[in-house]
Amino acid sequence: MNEVTLIGIDLGKHVFHLHAQDMKGREVFRKKLSRMQLIPFFSNLKAVTVVMEACAGAHWLARKLDTVGHQARLISPQYVRRFVKSNKNDYIDAEAICEAASRPAMRFVEPRTEAQQLLAALHRVREGLVTERTATINRIHAVLLEFGIVVPLARATLRRLPDVLAVQDSPPRLIQLIHRLHAHYRYLDQQIADVERDLTSQLHEDENAARLLSIPGIGTITASLLASEVGNVTQFAGGRNFAASIGLVPRQHSTGGRSVLCGISKRGDKHLRHLLVQGARAVIQRVEKRTDRLGEWIRSMLTRRHSNVVACAVANKLARIAWRVLTRHTTYDAARLKLAD
């Protein structure tokens, strides 16, 4: 039997399909293992490179495989799809993962630590709670509007909503329904505050995240998400590569020697890109008060480009600054900012 050098795993909830290859790319074996059998199987196997798609459970499994002596590598699913041969099943998917990982120029995803995953989980929970809170506010507004009651959606008004309804000539059952929705809104608001408090406490424990707070337009939420999503920043060759990984660079459609640049690619983490763009808009709103080189550059851009284009350009710049701050283990210094790259 040939010696196994590479194993591709097609991940599942309860069952995992394995495809093993030797150093020449020839199949050695195929196996189907349950979740209970997976770790014991690799514990008794000679150290090899194990590759899987970067999806649910992949980072946890990568850490487990590293502890038993294997080299775990994660690959983006979009790079695996093109290597699937005709018909699709779980074994063919595992084989395609091996084929993709064998390419010398293939890009891999850095496995996250447990702390980074916890931060990412907090952000996902907060994002879901914020969406649900917004839906509840809109629901209150819509129900009242059906009865001719217009209430501003400001948070101050929502806090004293029962007092506002008390002076209205409204049906008792309507008031009871609004009280129920208002109690749900207050519960969600408190849950969001608790999650943000946890994020802030973890942020002060993370040295890298604390450095990010020195960058204009980056606050607690964005800094903690950057710390959890970026992982090992040395996986990116430069700030441009990091900005490209979150979709803040133009999408190319060039051919025949003619360069065609479209809008931003919008690849990578949508939530992180959204926070960086919103942070950039906050910087732009106060750009008249800035006397550094960043302020001069933004004012120059605003004279010739639309504010939305400038916001994406500033977000791109913030992403590059964040990469440099993390790689150089320093804080933001406006005097050393380079704007030509």
Automatic annotation (TrEMBL):
Q: Which residues form the Transposase IS110-like N-terminal domain?
A: 7-147
**Domain Transposase IS116/IS110/IS902 C-terminal: where?**
210-290
A single Gene Ontology biological process assigned to it is: DNA transposition
**What one GO molecular function would you report for this record?**
transposase activity
Report which superkingdom the organism of origin falls in: Bacteria
- What is this protein's record name? IS110 family transposase ISPath1
**Organism of origin:** Paraburkholderia fynbosensis
